[in-house]
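ARCHIVE CARD
Drawer: 12
Card no.: 0347
Subject: one protein chain, sequence and derived structure
Cross-reference: see card 0346
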Amino acid sequence: MTTPHSHRRRTARRRAVIALSGVGALTAGALVTTGLLPSAGAAKAPAAAAPAAQTSAKAAAKGPAAWPKPTGSKPVPATIKVDGTYDGKLKRHYGQGALGSGGQKEGQPPVFTLADGAVLKNVVIGSPAADGVHCLGSCTLQNVWWEDVGEDAATFKGKSANAVYTVYGGGARKASDKVLQFNGAGKLVISKFQVSDFGKLVRSCGNCKTQYKRTVIVNDVDVSGPGNSLVGINANYGDSASLRNVRIHGDSKKKIKPCTRFTGNNTGKEPVQNGTGPDGTHCRYQPSDLTYR
């Protein structure tokens, strides 16, 4: 015969088991969610417990993330060709021999050449940096850091209008001219990146023999002066640049031009600048998309 007291004890035990099972399910769910969050070195996903807006505000207040300390050094006497994924494990790669001039001369070979669909990640490119990275088609540069940009940090050369070039995390500094050179077709997406002491962050080729319509998206980026301009595009070829959540440091006089429009050509002549600032068509941003610190 079951007493009222024993019935209450069994009921309490069942409730405890159900409660523990619920906690286990929540924990498992949290682990699965955490496993799906992207990771890219300095570009870390916010903790699940913190509200997204609050986390974003705190990150912006701290300014650019600290540069990583290289885990070792690797001299590169000849271009490394990547077909698939190359994980540099944050070793400093620097040019040697044919890649070791350290100048700004046009036509230098790159430290890395990426085939269509290749991924380059966790790499520090030191000096000499030659012509950095060449992408021959769609590519991903994840957590790549240029300590002293050579001719250019990266050049995008894909010929397909569907090509997508992704620069996620990482940063570049000491670029006397261009950081990212956009010679090919398609879309270039830059996020969670930082740049300092530079000429131009992105330039759509103004006088390449073959010209394309190019799309540039810059989002969640830290920019530190001195610098000349963020994005230069060719309006006559239908280029567009969208700027969102860009934090500009050390430019109280607002000398860095967010977006500049040019009339490009395919004859090799110097392109003519024909406007700067938002126009809703080619330079797509609002003043609120830029924060000066």
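Annotation on reverse: Confidence is low (pLDDT under 50) at residues 1-57. The chain has two helices and 21 strands.
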